[in-house]
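Q: What would this chain look like folded?
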Amino acid sequence: MLPAEVMARAGDEMLDWHGSGMSIMEMSHRGKEFISVYEEAERDLRELLAVPKSYKILFLQGGATLQFAQIPMNLLAGKGKADYVVTGEWSKKAVKEAKGYCDVAIAATSEDRNFSYAPKSFSVRKDAAYVHYCSNETIGGVEYHTVPSLSADVPLVVDASSHFLSRPLDVSKFGLVYAGAQKNAGPAGLTFVIVREDLMGKAQKGTPSVMDYKLQADADSMLNTCPTYSIYVAGLVFKWLKQLGGLPAIEKINVRKAQLLYDFLDSSRFSGIRSRKKTAPA
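A: My prediction, written as C-alpha cells:
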C-alpha cells in the first residue's frame, strides 16, 4: 500500500508537474525536469540508507528476478564460482538461474526442515566470487533479522526486496543489495541495486549493455529509457519517509503493526490448534 499522502501528491501533479505543463509520464527521461526528479530521488535514497560514497545506486528494470541472472553476469570476475544460501522459493529460483553462469555451491540450507528456519552458519568457499542470500522469504515466512557474519573475505549479496526501506540496513556490510520497489518503496517496474564500486566493471563477455552495472552507473541508470514514473513515485515515498523521521521511525511503526497481528494470532483459536498439533503424538 502506498502512503495516502504520496498518492494524493502524485494525483495533484498528474497533469502538470510543477508548472511544466506536462505529466512526469510525458517527459523525456533526458530532459532537465526529469533529471532533477531522478537526482533528488537518488540523493534521498542515499540519505535514508546512509549509503557510503563507495557505492553506486542504480534504478533498473526487470524486477528482482532479473537480478538472479544479472548478478552472476557482473560479479563473477572470472572466478566462475558463487555460493548460495537456500531458505525458500526465492533463493531456490536464484540458484537455478545462477547455475546457467557459474559453479554454484550451497553455503547453507534449511531444506532439512522444509525451509522453516534461517541458517546462521555458512560454509563459504574462499575462492567464491560472492555469497548470495534472501533476507526474507515471503512465501515461507523465514526472515533474517540481522546480517549474517561471514568468516571468509567474500562479498555478501542480499535480496532485500520484501523489507527494503522498512527498517535501517547497514549497506556497508554488503557487496551488493538489490530489491524490487513494489513491496515498500513504490509501484512495480523499478528495481534498486546498490553495488560497491570495486565490484563493477568486470561483466562477463556477452553481457547485454543494459545489464552491465558499470555501464548503467556511468549513464546514471539511463543507458536505456528508465521507468520514469516509478522513479518519481519512489522519490515521493523517500520524502514521506524522511518526514516521518527516516527508517528508524518507520521501523517502530512496522513493529507496532506486526505486534497487533501476532498478539491476535497468539490469543486466537488458531494458536490453540497450532499448540495442540505441536504436542500431539507423532
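The CA atoms of residues 201 and 214 lie 5 Å apart.
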